[in-house]
Design goal:
The complex is a heterodimer. Chain A is an alpha+beta fold. Chain A contains 5 helices and 5 strands. Chain A has 2 domains: about 70 residues, Beta-grasp domain (Ubiquitin-like (UB roll)); about 60 residues, [2Fe-2S]-binding domain (DNA polymerase, domain 1, Orthogonal Bundle), CATH 1.10.150. The radius of gyration of chain A is 16 Å and the shape is globular. By secondary structure, chain B is α+β, with helices and mostly antiparallel strands. A 7-stranded mixed beta sheet of chain B has the order 4-6-2-13-10-11-12, with helices on both faces. In chain B, strands 1-29-26-25-17 form a 5-stranded mixed beta sheet, sandwiched between helices. A 5-stranded mixed beta sheet of chain B has the order 8-16-15-14-9. The chains are: A alpha+beta, B alpha+beta.
Amino acid sequence: MREVVEKVDLAFEVNGDSVRLAVSPDATLAEALRDDLELNGTKTGCEEGECGACSVLLDGKVVNSCLVLALECGGKSVVTIEGLAREGRLHPMQEAFVNHGAIQCGYCSPGMIMTAYALRLENASPTEAEVRRALEGNLCRCTGYRKIIDAVLSLNNGESRHD
Amino acid sequence: MIKTSGDTGTVNKRGTDQESLIGGRIPKLDAPEKAVGLTRYLDDIKLPRMLYGKILYADRPHARVVDIDTSPAAAMYGVRAVITAADIELVRFGFGSDNTALKGEKVTCIRDEIAAVAADTPEIAGEAVKRIRVTYEDLPVVATIEEALASGAPVIHEGAPNNVPFRFDYDHGDIDEGVSQSDVIVEDTFSSQRVAHCCLGTSGLIAHFGPDGRLTLHSLTQVPFLYKHDLSRIVGVPPEKIRVIQPPIGGGFGSKLDVHPFEPICVFLARATGRPVRMVFTREEEFFATPTRQPMVIQLRSGAKRDGTFTFRDVRMTLDNGGRTSWGATTPWISMRTFSSLYRVPHVRQHVDVIYTNNIYACAFRGYGNPQATFALESQIDKLAHELGMDPLDIRLKNAQEPGETTGQGMVLGTCGLADCLKTAAHNAGWDVKHSGPQKPVGKSRRVRGLGMASLFHVGGGAKIYRSDGCGTILQIDDFGGVTVQTGASEIGQGSETVIAQIVAEELGLPIENIRVVNNDSDLKPWDVGVHASRTTFIAGNSALRAARQAKGKLLVAAAEKLNREPDELDLAKGNVVDRETGEPIESIGKVLRGMHFGRKNEMIQATEFYEPPSKMPDEGHKGDISACYAFGTHVAEVEVDLDTGVVRVLGISAAHDVGRVINQLGIEGQIEGGIAQGIGYTLTEEVKVEGGRVVNPSFTDYKLVTTHEVPELKLEFIETHDPAGPHGAKGVAEAPLVPVAPAIANAVYNATGVRMTDLPLTPERVLAKLNESREAERGATDG
């Protein structure tokens, strides 16, 4: 079991804010976000890097936050699902997910949206094959993915293929 | 995308389709909150002084419990309670009354719950259960149906000395007569596997007792009112002292129709500690300690006349029930309806044996026995067509149910769009061109393509398996045209909240933004049987529609009085009272409401409705008009099979569903697309593998779900038959799209390769083995 261990100081940036925390050396980034910072938008569906529900950006790259130790994030920048909306307005990716019916139970949605957001940081106009590849590590049991793929593609031209 | 069936269609009476919310692409009302990560699921909820619960499982399939020593766990710092069967009253529950929350004497499957801990942190709880010492005396393991039925087999439960706890029989007509009428008879054995619901959010519960003895549960249940009643008996708290709060849930699919042992365990921990206790499963627990889809072996024999007319169908079904009974044992009840009523067939007989083994057990899962039955039936119909030299489309059209028929099982088909579904799905898939003739390899590759079809029959207007299949609505309108709808319906991600808001907004002529749906607290919401059987749009929709109509009637009377008009000269639209004829706005709804409230009469608008569908409970022979209407559909799958590897890839699915009427186009597409994806997983890759009673692949690494790569080209079409019983003509749809996927794919594999797959899933190994078998047979025939 986790013995009573000395917590270690961690300073990093989360959604643009400087954050200082004391965390257990074995705490994952997902645990630090959810338990210490109450950023519960990051979900955990398997805690072994298979489902993608905990996807966040670490220095601009998408990672499974359940597989990253919190202490690895010292001095780095993390963006979570809570960091996308600006001034109360949904990020266009979030809006696309809502308007395309890409969200049902919603449990996979934060991870999906973060992965799609990360894809578009690197590739502003991904093809359908590129979208499928980027999202291959994010499981969804409700939607069958079609509407998720459509939502991401809709941002290419500011509109959806289907609408 | 929508096709209206000419025979039975009616047009929107108000002629306001372009402005109507009904049939629109309406984003889910709860989606923005989910998109920004603010939705609080069960594992995001922390109550003050909350403890964390953890269960110790037997981890052996069959054994006597000799001794349990909890002292090493109890001695740990941070452990607040340790309980075993000795600490609780053991109340039997479940469909077979063969389960208890904790097991004290005998273990009958690896997931049997032995002890539980509540501790300050999940880590302490996890370590504490590991320190509990249990001494077992192992018993011989019954790992298969054959072992369970062998003479001298170990008895798993004393109540069933032959290991057969249930048998079910159904029949209509006379099989012997059907046999004598047949020109062709075919017989096959089909098998299907255990699959897991794989809800992305795992199972869990928060239980806590108030100082008044009231028990509050944050529960993922799909059936809050039945749950209260069942749990009450197990934990000894009167139902009226139980409050069920339903936080948003990370997927349901039928997995939460039962009270599972962890739920009373969590309540017992809360009682023992006097503190809130939260229990949330790990993914591994979710795989081995929650029930699966019911695996089935189906021996099917059926016949037809030379012209393709079906004559009889004889079904023997054997179920591996596992070591305890949840709803899995009852899934044959739904399978019967497909065998008896998807097509016209005069003579049907079905016998079901449910067999105890020491495997894990099964519960409800989207389709409830229907996917298994449809796989067998639609595969065999394809074979019959082949034997008769008929096009598989033609044999189905020849026998398809039609509107107005009463089936052999006593179901009355008011509307039925099956023929339209068959023709539409086939047409959209290019059936005439692609299905006929031997399939040629794709280019120079060793891959071949083929097309296959399958249809489905399912309840579409609820399912009266309890004495009430109803749903209540309480509707209130404030002084400004804001509406609060308290519905009995439960939202599990499928979009019922949005559909109910649409129906109410449409009736009251208000923007959908004005409607608030309250659906997650048993202290506030009226009774509903639960979210299952594809019933919510139909039942809760009808209930909401009727409540809204009452409210509208009151509003129009008040407006007429105020405006010196007759109520039937007025209507409601776009937030106004309008002239019914011209649509001219006369007065805002808010002004009429305030006039009612603060004027002479001091009235406000409140409406209540309890809607009970006009369906009947089946009789002892399983016959009767169980649903207020019935759903039909057809899928045509196009596949590519690699002849060297046996890998099957689904290229496309053309689906046509008789949904009565589309209420939310966006939502219904989501249901169909999601159901198809689950169906593809069920057909090709998913299996909870159990060896010697043990689950050997309890992770997403070893249990292969469909990902973005496996989603094929989809062509969806909705056949609108406008069922008179449905809200705006709608039928239920939620389970339907999963049901025909497996046989459509298996039939396409046959069309591509000439080999018929009878065991799910269609793994490359299985397909390749069949391909090799058929090659050897061909070679043998050539050599001979």
